[in-house]
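To: structure desk
From: M.T.
Subject: fold request, one chain
Message: Could you run this one when you get a chance? Sequence is below, nothing fancy, just the single chain.
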Amino acid sequence: MQRSILLFTFFICTVSFSSAQSNILRKTEWTVEETKQWAESQKKFPTWNGALLYQGSDSVHHHFISRVMDEWVFFQIKKEELKLIEEKPYKQTSSGPLGYYYVDATNNFIKTKDID
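Reply: Done. Structure tokens follow.
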């Protein structure tokens, strides 16, 4: 009986910890400052090219995506916090390009190049 309780407690703790980590890794709504800090912290990885891919904007957010190593990170930044010179519509389709152009988050989200 004690062994069952111990195993059950271990299981609950493991699930709770995994869930907490998952929520941290799956953050999607970001501020401009948080995004700049995140981009700066990725410079230590050899696969980081320094750019976020702009996916478009809806009525509330600008959407960006980035991949460092094997981790995809999705960014939603409120339009009221970030003004972009060239806004495009945000498409939620599974086919076609992932975005429109790359931006440098550490340099005021300046467009660096169009998607190839």
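Reply (cont.): The chain has one domain: 28-114. Let me know if you need anything else for the meeting.
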